[in-house]
């Protein structure tokens, strides 16, 4: 809820450190109390609007069921915090749960760069299901940063490869959802 707290009324605001999750992933919530002074008397209890997909423990750790059957386009789940001191002050944060990555592919298998001409190239990753592009995190790495450096954009759906020195290196994109999906290409720098 982003509506501001009503003046002179106790309220809480829930936030979360990641708002797109996949099966097996975790996130941590935080509760801010307004005004600040009443926090110690008002612990919160947590709940999830879709407990078969997402659970939240008593310390506010959110976890997506690793075996969750998530629809292709994803699902929105509300994580609620409610004070347990009888004041029933509550707030929720919404997370988007996306399916696990099924495959990663890079459009190119080989990229040639030169230190004088084409010193960099852009590469995009293709993901299945396609609904994950721009949402699911992908980490890029170079097998030899003295040959090629990699700089990813956004969630890692695209990267720039920069020639550093002559040689060959492998650039790998890896899904960060625990699915084990990855894709690689060879870079030759002359």
Number of beta-strand segments = 16
Beta fraction of the residues? over 45%
The SSE string, one letter per element, is EEEEEEEEEEEEEEEE
Helical proportion, percent range: under 10%
Oligomer: single chain
Radius of gyration: 22 Å
Query: Mind describing the biggest β-sheet?
Result: 4 strands, antiparallel
- Distance from N terminus to C terminus (CA atoms, Å) equals 54 Å
Average pLDDT score: 92
What is the overall shape?
elongated
Going by helix content, strand content and strand pairing, the class is mainly beta
Q: Would you identify the regions where 5 or more consecutive residues have pLDDT less than 50?
A: none
State the helix count: 0
In spatial order, strands of the major sheet run: 1-3-6-5
Q: What are the salient characteristics of this protein?
A:
190 residues, mainly beta, 4-stranded mixed β-sheet
In terms of topology, how is this protein built?
Layout: E1 11-16, E2 20-21, E3 26-34, E4 44-48, E5 54-56, E6 61-64, E7 75-83, E8 90-97, E9 103-106, E10 110-113, E11 120-128, E12 138-142, E13 148-153, E14 158-163, E15 167-175, E16 182-189
Parallel strand pairs: 2-8, 10-16
Antiparallel strand pairs: 1-3, 3-6, 4-7, 5-6, 7-8, 9-11, 11-14, 12-15, 13-14, 15-16
Question: Could you characterize the architecture of this molecule?
Answer:
- The structure is a single chain.
- The protein is mostly beta strands and 190 residues long.
- It has no helices and 16 strands.
- Strands 1-3-6-5 form a four-stranded antiparallel beta sheet, with no helix packed on it. The chain has a four-stranded mixed beta sheet with strand order 2-8-7-4, with no helix packed on it. It has a four-stranded antiparallel beta sheet with strand order 9-11-14-13, with no helix packed on it.
- A hairpin with a 6-residue loop joins strand 15 and strand 16.
- The model has no long low-confidence stretch (mean pLDDT 92).
